[in-house]
Structures are given as C-alpha cells and as structure tokens.
Amino acid sequence: MKHKKRLDQLLVERALANDTKQAQALIMSGQVLVGTQKTDKPGEMVSVEADITIKSRRDHPYVSRGGLKIAHGLDHFAIDPAGTIALDVGSSTGGFTDVLLRRGATKVYAVDVGYGELDYRLRQDPRVVVLERTHARDVSRELIPDPIDILVCDVSFIRLQNALPRPLELVRPSGRGLVLIKPQFQLPRELIGEGIVTDPALHTRACEEASSWFSSQKGWEVKGITPSPILGGDGNTEFLLYIAKVRDSA
User: Is the separation of the CB atoms in 148 and 86 below 8 Å?
Assistant: First the structure.
C-alpha cells in the first residue's frame, strides 16, 4: 500500500501553499484537484505520489482584473514595455504593474494614495518601488528620480486632468502613456445619475474632453483610444487612451 499523508500537509511540502493555514483555505474553497477530482477536505489522506494541482478561481493570470485592461491596451497599440521604467498611478492591487513586469519592465514606481493594497508578491519584487500614501499631485523628481518611459494610470473619484499634470512632467521625451478613462469620474456630477454611465454620447464626451486636455499639455499627443475589454467593477464602460510625448517638446 502506497504511503499517504494529509492533503494540506502535501500542499505545504510541495510548495503549493506557504503554510498549513493557506493550504486548508485553498482546499476548502475548492481550488485543489487530486488527479481530476476536486476535494474540500484538508484532512483527507492522499497518496504521496498523487498528482495535486491548484485551480485558480480567476479566469486570468494577473493579480487583479485591471491586468486584463492594460494587457489589451498594450496589445492594441503595440506597446512593448520590455526594458522600460514605468510609473503606475493609482496602482491599487497592482494589476497594471503586474502586466508591465510580466512583459519585461525593469522597474515600476507604484503610486497610490491608499495603503496596504498592493499584492504581496509585487510588494516583495525588487523591481517595484512602492509609493503608498502618495497622491499623484505630489509626485516629484525627488520622489521619482528616474526618467519615466511609460506612464499608466487607473484612478477613481478624480478627473485625469486633476491627477496627472505632475506625473506627465516625469515622462522623458519620446515616452508614452496608457491611461484609463472612466466616464463616471470625468463628467459633471449632474450627468452621472446613479453612477452608471450608459449613454454613448456621454462616453464620447468624456473621451473627447480627456483627449483634448492631454493634447493641450506641452509636448503630448493623443495617438488613439480603445474600449476596455471588460467593464469596470461598478459596471461602467471604460476606455484606454494612448498618448505619446514628442521628442521636440523642450
């Protein structure tokens, strides 16, 4: 008879979980397969030779849904982050940062006004400079000394026009930006209603106003816009705006 061990113990031994507590949580949430069979019993005795896999509950590989948005924008506009230094404004859990690193960015400054939101794995990554409790309006060369190659942004409860003047100044000539337009935060409050913007005319207005503002910033050009592949967490349609800083902007 083949030797058996507790399933939660095997997960820890195979480095599928950091500790017994995490192993038990994975098992009880139905994310563990023994062979092809799902089990929710941490104490189940399993052969030490059994094939054990973790089935992710997410339908994507990123730390948050935001990764799907930025990945689409990078692909749509053929932007390659490999070898770049990036600035992620409104980093939150780190979906944008995660994708940039996966695609070869050498450093990402993760800026967020909140605290403790960034995914633990990203927080421990030496390529990530965590700037928590930091408002986008307060970034500076002293805080971020590296010239930025790529600026990405996903902010809420503030217009892009109010959040990004300082970050734009940190981007080097020929640098690029990919920013998320959220109509519910771009438009006047009286047009929002219950918070879900469904009128295509309002989507167009939000995008045109944001585009006009970016075009008015010294050295910046709007290169294109595309709808986000998924709705925002509140059900709103969002858009990705591609901007570029021209070389002769000095």
Answer: yes
The total of other beta-carbon atoms located within 10 Å of residue 156's CB is 14
Helical axes 95-102 vs 66-76, angle rounded to 10° = 50
Per the domain annotation, does 143 fall within a domain? yes
Q: Name the phi and psi angles at 15, rounded to 5.
A: 65, 25
In tens, the pLDDT along 38-61 reads 888 999 999 988 888 877 656 677
Range of the domain at 209: 66-245
Widest pairwise Cα distance in the chain: 76
Residue 60 lies in a domain: no
131 and 42 housed in the same domain: no
Distances (CA, A) of 250 to 92, 151, 246: 33, 19, 9
Whether residues 100 and 189 share a domain: the answer is: yes
Q: What is the pLDDT of residues 66-88, one digit of tens each?
A: 999 999 999 999 999 999 999 99
Whether 221 and 236 have beta carbons less than 8 Å apart is answered as: no
Q: How long is the chain?
A: 250
Residue 38 sits in the same domain as residue 83:
no
d(CA 249, CA 243): 14
